[in-house]
Design goal:
Layout (H helix, E strand, L loop, with lengths): L1 H7 L1 H39 L6 E7 L9 H10 L11 E11 L5 E8 L6 E6 L7 E5 H7 L6 E6 L8 E11 L5 H4 L8 E2 L5 E2 L3 E3 L13 E7 L10 H9 L14 E4 L1 H44 L1 H9 L4 H38 L10 H26 L3 H5 L12 H19 L3 H37 L2 H12 L1 H39 L3 E6 L3 H11 L6 E11 L2 E8 L4 H4 L8 H10 L7 E3 L2 E12 L5 E7 L6 E7 L3 E8 L7 E9 L8 E12 L2 E2 L8 E3 L8 E7 L2 E8 L4 E6 L6 E6 L11 E5 L5 E10 L9 E5 H9 L10 E7 L7 H7 L3 E7 H8 L3 H30 L1 H13 L4 H34 L23 H27 L11
Parallel strand pairs: 3-10, 5-7, 15-31, 28-30
Antiparallel strand pairs: 1-11, 1-12, 2-3, 2-6, 2-11, 4-7, 6-7, 8-9, 13-32, 13-33, 14-15, 14-32, 16-21, 17-20, 17-22, 18-19, 18-21, 21-27, 22-23, 22-26, 24-27, 25-26, 28-31, 29-30
Helix pairs in contact: 1-9, 2-7, 2-9, 2-10, 2-22, 7-10, 7-13, 7-15, 7-22, 9-10, 12-13, 13-14, 13-15, 13-24, 14-24, 15-21, 15-22, 15-24, 15-25, 22-25, 23-25, 24-25
Length: about 1000
C-alpha cells in the first residue's frame, strides 16, 4: 500500500524525498564543511609561508671526540623511522662552520660548508666541482672582490679557534649558484651573503667542499645535521598533533653517536598556533550558521507535510470510518513519508558531501577534499530524527480530528496563539541582540540574524492576519467582492501565515548573507591594497636604492607601470613603525591606495617630491680656491670636504691647513674614478686639539679633473646635523662663493652640507606621530640610515600601503640622498627592496629584473592576496551564510509552490463555484493578485528590512576579514549590486511561482469540476 501510494502521488513523493535529503545534506554540511575549511586554512597558511618557515633542521655541534662525517646520516636514520616524518621530503645532509679568511684583498669571514649533492646546484665558471681536503670552491663575486683566481691559496681557520693558525687551502673552482633562491635545497643557513654586515665585517659567499672529510680540521663550532622540507601536499590536519609530538621527543638513539645532543630547529609550532586560532573560529561559526539552515529545512518539511496530510484528510477519514485502529491509521497516513525520509538519509549524505567536495574544488585551497569522519554519520542520524519529528508534528493535528471533519472539503480553522516557541524565540533574539550591542560574544552574534529572522517572521504573520481582518471588515462594508475574496483567504487559511513566517525568514537570511558577503568582499579589496599597495609586488635583492631606481627607470622609462620601494622598520613605543620610501613620481600610475586615488595621488606626489638641485659629482681629484680672512686655533685648522664613494660610507678629505689670504687646496680622490658625491665643505680641527676655534673664509671655486664644478652659487647649503648651543656657524652662498664663519669649542669639525633633499623631509603619516606629541606635524625619528631625521607631515592617512596603520610614506630618491650623508645603505640588513608593478607591466617582469641585475626573492599579487583572503576564517564562515541564505530562498520558493499545489484542488473548486455564481474572471484574477501580493509582498519587504537591520547590528561584531598588524579600518558600506541583485532574484522567483500557481488554478477552475465531485 505504501509503495502504491508513492506511485500514485509521484510529484509529492519526490518533494518529500528532496526535502528530507536537503535536511540531511544541511546537517552533514556542518562537520564536513568545517573539516574541509580547516584543512583549507592549514594548506593556505603553510603555502603562504616562505620555504624557510616550513623547514625542519636537525643538527648537533661537534666535539673533538666524534667521527663527525657519519653524523648527518645517523641523524637521518634516527628520525626517518618515525611515522610523522612521512610529511617531510628527503633530507639534505650538511656540515658547516663559520671561518675567518686571509690572503685576499681584505680579511673576511665565510661559511665553509659541505652540502649533499651541492654540485647539482652550482654552475662552474672556472675549474671543476670537486673539492677534497685542503681545497675549496669560491663564488664568482667573492673571488672578484678578493681578487682570487683558480689555483690561488686562501687562509682559513674557525672563528672559534683561539690560538689556531690559518691553514692554506687551494681554490680549485669558481662557481655561481644555479638558483640562490631555491630555499627547498639551500635551507635557512644563508650560504650567499657576500658583503659587509651592519658592524662593517666583510662576509664572503660560502666556500664549498664536496667531501665531508674536507672539513676534518675544523672542530670548534662545526654544525652537522640534515635539512627537511615540509611536503605540503602530503600534510593533513589530522597529522599536525602527531608531528609536533614527534618533533618534541626526537633524539639520537643511544649508542649511535656518543656525546652529541640533537637540536630541533623548526618554526612549525608557532605557525600551527596561529592556524589553530583560525580553525577554532571556523569550528565555532560553522555550526551556528548551518544549524539554522537545518532547522529551516525541518520547518519546510513540517509545512509541506501538514499541507499534504490535510489534502489527504478525506482518505484518512475513510480509513477511520472503516474501523482501522489509531496505529493503523497513523501507519497509513505516515508510511509513505517515513519510508521516503529513511531513503533520503543516504542520498542526503551523498548530496551534502558532494556539495562540500564541489565547494572545496571551486573556492577552497588546492588539494582540499571531503574528510569522512564518524560524526558526519552522527549528524546524518540527527537529521533523520529531526525529520521524523517534523513529520509527526505536522500530521498530529489531522490524525486527531473527528471523521466528519476529515471528510468535509472545507479546511478546519485554527486560531493563531502565542506559544512557548514564539516567546522563546523572542527572548533568544533579545538576548543575542544585547550580546551584539555589548560586544560580549561574537559567536552568539552570528546566531542573532537567524533569531531576528524568526521574530520578524512571526511578527509579519501576525501583522498580516491583523491587516486581513481589518480590510475584510472594510470590504464587507463597501461591498468589494475582489477585496473580500482576497482577505477571507488570508484570514482563514493558517498555511498562509506559516508561509509568511518562512518567506520572511528566508528573505532575512538571504539579505543578511548577501550584505555580509558584499561588505566582506569590499573590505578584502581594501585589505589587499593595504597589504600590497600595487597589483603585483616583487621583493628583490638590490645593493642599494640607487641600483633599484636605475633598474626601474631602465625597464620603465615612461614611468607608467613600475615603481621602486624601500621599506625599513623602526621601534617606537614598543611597537613597530614602518617607513615606506617610494618613487613618488610613479605613484599615480602604480599605487593602489584606499585613501588616495587619481589626481589626489598626483598632488601628493608633488608634495613629497618638491624640486631640488641635483647631487654634485667630482672625479679623481678635488681643487679648491679659498680666501681665509682669519683662522684662530692652538693647532692649524684644515679645509675639509665630505664625499661619498659609491658603495661606501661618507668620509672627510683633508685638503690642507688654512692659511690667511687666497690659497689653493687640493687632494686626490682615491676610489672616485667613476665619480663621487661632494656633499659638504667645511673646517676640521687638528686631532687632539680641544681649544676654542674661530674662522672666516670664502670658497671661491671648486674644480675636479674635468674642470669647474658649478655648486657654490646655489643657496642650498646648511649646517650638517644640529648645531650645539656653544657653536655659531654662519653660511652664505652667493655668486661670489660660499662664505663660512664660525666660533666653536669641543666640536671636531664644522661642515656645510650641500642640500639635495628637502629639510625637513615631507611625509604622509598613518597613525599617531612617533613623538611625545602624537598630533605633531614636525618631529625627529630614526630613518633608514639609523640616525634621527627631521620629518614634516604634509598629509595623513588611515593606512600607508605596505606600511600599515603606523607608518610614514616618503620619497625614495630624497631618502637615499639624505642617508648617503651618514652611511652606506648596502650594509644595512634590515632594509627590504621591492618593485611594485601594474598588472600589465608585470608580464615577464621577473625575468627582466633578473637580467637587469636584481635577484627576485619572492612575488605576490593583489589577485593572489584576494584569493587567499577569500579562504580565511571570516570568508569561510560568511560564504556559508551566503549559501544558507540562497538555500533558504530556494526552500521557501519550493514551499510556496508545493503548498499552493497541494491546496489547488479546493481552490479550483472555490473558483469554479464563484464563476458559476457569476463572479467575473477579472475579479478573480485581481483578488488572487491582492491575496498573493499581501502574503508574498509583505514578507519580501519585512525580510529585506530585517536583514539590513541585522547586518547593521551584527556585522560590527563579526570579523569580516582577518585583520593583520597593518590592516586598515573596516568600512561598513554596501555596494550597488549584491543586495539589489539578490532581492531582484527573490522577487523574480516568487513571481514565476505565483504565475505558475495562477495558471494551474485557472486551467482547472471550470463549472464542470462541480459535477459529481470530479477533480
Amino acid at each position: 500500500m505504501i509503495a502504491r501510494g508513492i506511485r500514485y502521488r509521484p510529484g509529492r513523493s519526490v518533494v518529500v524525498l528532496l526535502l528530507a535529503m536537503a535536511a540531511t545534506a544541511a546537517a552533514v554540511l556542518t562537520p564536513a564543511y568545517g573539516y574541509a575549511a580547516e584543512q583549507s586554512l592549514l594548506t593556505d597558511e603553510l603555502n603562504s609561508q616562505n620555504e624557510r618557515a616550513t623547514q625542519l633542521q636537525l643538527f648537533a655541534v661537534r666535539n673533538s671526540d666524534v667521527d663527525y662525517t657519519e653524523v648527518p646520516a645517523q641523524i637521518g636514520e634516527a628520525v626517518d623511522t618515525l611515522p610523522a616524518m612521512q610529511v617531510y621530503t628527503d633530507p639534505v645532509e650538511f656540515i658547516r662552520v663559520t671561518t675567518h679568511t686571509t690572503g685576499g684583498y681584505y680579511d673576511a669571514r665565510a661559511l665553509l660548508a659541505y652540502r649533499q649533492d651541492v654540485c647539482d646546484h652550482l654552475v662552474m665558471v672556472d675549474g671543476d666541482c670537486q673539492a677534497g681536503p685542503g681545497e675549496v670552491l669560491l663564488s664568482k663575486r667573492s673571488a672578484e672582490a678578493e681578487r682570487f683566481e683558480v689555483g690561488d691559496s686562501i687562509g682559513i681557520k674557525s672563528v672559534q679557534g683561539i690560538n689556531v693558525a690559518h691553514t692554506e687551502h687551494e681554490i680549485v673552482g669558481i662557481y655561481e649558484p644555479a638558483d640562490a633562491g631555491d630555499q627547498e635545497y639551500w635551507g635557512r643557513s644563508g650560504y650567499f651573503s657576500h658583503g659587509p654586515d651592519p658592524d662593517g665585517v666583510e662576509f664572503l659567499d660560502a666556500m664549498f667542499v664536496t667531501q665531508p672529510q674536507a672539513a676534518d680540521e675544523f672542530a670548534e663550532g662545526m654544525r652537522m645535521g640534515v635539512d627537511y622540507q615540509l611536503n605540503l601536499t602530503a600534510l593533513r590536519d589530522s597529522d599536525i598533533d602527531a608531528i609536533l609530538a614527534a618533533l618534541g621527543r626526537l633524539e639520537i638513539p643511544d649508542g649511535a653517536v656518543e656525546g652529541l645532543t640533537l637540536t630541533v630547529d623548526n618554526n612549525l609550532t608557532g605557525i600551527v598556533e596561529a592556524i589553530r586560532d583560525g580553525q577554532a573560529q571556523i569550528r565555532a561559526s560553522v555550526p551556528i550558521i548551518a544549524v539554522p539552515l537545518l532547522l529551516l529545512c525541518w520547518f519546510v518539511l513540517y509545512l509541506v507535510m501538514a499541507r499534504l496530510t490535510e489534502e489527504r484528510a478525506p482518505e484518512i477519514g475513510l480509513a477511520k470510518l472503516r474501523g482501522l485502529r489509531y496505529g493503523s491509521v497513523t501507519g497509513f497516513a505516515l508510511g509513505e513519508a517515513l519510508l521516503l525520509i529513511v531513503a533520503a538519509v543516504p542520498l542526503g549524505l551523498l548530496l551534502g558531501l558532494g556539495i562540500v567536495q564541489v565547494t572545496a574544488a571551486l573556492v577552497l585551497a588546492e588539494g582540499t577534499s571531503v574528510t569522512l569522519r564518524a560524526d558526519v554519520f552522527g549528524y546524518a542520524g540527527l537529521a533523520l530524527i529531526g525529520s521524523l519529528l517534523a513529520v509527526l508534528a505536522a500530521t498530529r493535528r489531522t490524525l486527531r480530528r473527528p471523521v466528519l471533519d476529515l471528510l468535509q472539503r472545507v479546511p478546519g480553522q485554527t486560531r493563531w496563539r502565542a506559544g512557548l516557541l514564539e516567546g522563546g524565540a523572542v527572548a533568544l533574539a533579545v538576548a543575542a541582540t544585547a550580546q551584539v550591542l555589548l560586544g560580549d560574544d561574537n559567536m552568539v552574534a552570528m546566531l542573532a540574524p537567524a533569531l531576528l529572522a524568526v521574530v520578524a517572521g512571526l511578527a509579519t504573520a501576525r501583522i498580516l492576519a491583523l491587516i486581513a481582518r481589518v480590510r475584510l471588515r472594510r470590504a464587507r462594508r463597501v461591498g468589494s467582492v475582489r477585496r473580500m475574496l482576497a482577505m477571507v483567504q488570508l484570514a482563514r487559511r493558517t498555511e498562509h501565515r506559516r508561509i509568511v513566517v518562512l518567506l520572511t525568514i528566508a528573505v532575512t537570511l538571504l539579505t543578511f548573507g548577501v550584505a555580509a558577503w558584499d561588505m566582506s568582499e569590499h573590505n578584502r579589496r581594501l585589505a589587499a591594497s593595504d597589504a600590497l599597495g600595487a597589483d603585483v609586488i616583487y621583493q628583490v635583492d638590490a645593493a642599494n636604492p640607487g641600483q633599484l631606481m636605475d633598474v626601474v627607470s631602465e625597464l620603465d622609462p615612461a614611468a607608467d607601470g613600475l615603481m621602486g620601494v624601500m621599506r625599513t622598520v623602526e621601534r617606537y613605543g614598543s611597537q613597530n613603525f614602518l617607513v615606506v620610501a617610494a618613487q613618488t613620481d610613479r605613484m599615480a600610475e602604480v599605487m593602489r591606495w584606499r585613501d588616495q586615488q587619481g589626481p589626489a595621488l598626483d598632488d601628493l606626489a608633488r608634495q613629497l617630491h618638491p624640486p631640488m638641485g641635483d647631487p654634485v659629482l667630482v672625479e679623481k681629484s678635488l681643487r679648491i680656491t679659498a680666501t681665509v680672512e682669519y683662522a684662530v686655533a692652538d693647532r692649524p685648522l684644515q679645509l675639509s670636504a665630505r664625499i661619498v664613494e659609491p658603495g661606501r660610507a661618507p668620509r672627510n678629505m683633508l685638503l690642507g691647513p688654512l692659511e690667511e689670504g687666497r690659497s689653493r687646496y687640493s687632494a686626490d680622490l682615491i676610489g672616485c674614478f667613476t665619480g663621487c658625491r661632494l656633499i659638504g665643505l667645511g673646517v676640521a680641527r687638528y686631532p687632539g686639539d680641544f681649544s676654542d676655534i674661530s674662522f672666516a673664509l670664502t670658497v671661491e671655486s671648486v674644480r675636479d679633473v674635468d674642470g669647474e664644478v658649478p655648486v657654490l652659487g646655489d643657496g642650498q647649503w646648511h649646517p650638517t646635523g644640529t648645531t650645539p648651543d656653544n657653536v655659531t656657524f654662519d653660511i652664505d652662498a652667493t655668486e661670489s662663493g660660499l662664505s663660512l664663519a664660525a666660533t666653536a669649542a669641543d666640536v671636531p669639525e664644522l661642515i656645510a652640507e650641500f642640500q639635495v633633499a628637502p629639510a625637513p623631509l615631507p611625509a604622509v603619516l598613518a597613525g599617531p606621530a612617533p613623538y611625545d606629541d602624537p598630533a605633531a606635524t614636525r618631529f625627529r625619528f630614526p630613518a633608514a640610515h639609523g640616525k634621527p631625521q627631521h620629518f614634516e607631515v604634509v598629509d595623513t592617512a588611515s593606512v600607508v600601503p605596505r606600511g600599515g596603520t603606523r607608518a610614514l610614506l616618503v620619497d625614495l630618491e630624497y631618502t637615499e640622498r639624505i642617508a648617503e650623508t651618514f652611511i652606506d645603505l648596502s650594509i644595512k640588513s634590515d632594509i627590504s627592496y621591492e618593485v611594485w608593478a601594474t598588472q600589465a607591466a608585470s608580464v615577464d617582469l621577473a625575468e627582466r629584473l633578473e637580467s637587469a641585475g636584481l635577484t627576485v626573492l619572492s612575488t605576490d599579487s593583489r589577485l593572489d592576496q584576494l584569493d587567499r583572503m577569500s579562504r580565511q576564517p571570516p570568508a569561510l564562515a560568511l560564504r556559508l551564510y551566503l549559501l544558507a541564505g540562497a538555500a533558504a530562498l530556494v526552500l521557501a520558493v519550493g514551499a510556496v509552490a508545493l503548498t499552493s499545489a497541494a491546496g489547488s484542488r479546493s481552490r479550483r473548486d472555490d473558483d469554479a463555484a464563484l464563476r458559476l455564481s457569476g463572479v467575473p474572471d477579472s475579479v478573480l484574477r485581481r483578488s488572487m493578485i491582492s491575496e498573493y501580493g499581501h502574503w508574498v509582498g509583505l514578507p519580501l519587504v519585512t525580510g529585506a528590512v530585517t536583514g539590513l537591520i541585522a547586518a547593521w547590528l551584527v556585522l560590527p561584531s563579526i570579523p569580516l576579514i582577518t585583520s593583520g598588524a597593518g590592516a586598515g579600518p573596516v568600512e561598513y558600506r554596501l555596494g550597488s549590486t549584491w543586495v539589489p541583485g539578490a532581492l531582484a532574484a527573490a522577487v523574480a522567483a516568487l513571481l514565476v511561482t505565483v504565475a505558475m500557481v495562477w495558471r494551474s488554478r485557472r486551467r482547472g477552475a471550470t463549472p464542470d469540476r462541480l459535477r459529481g465531485g470530479r477533480s
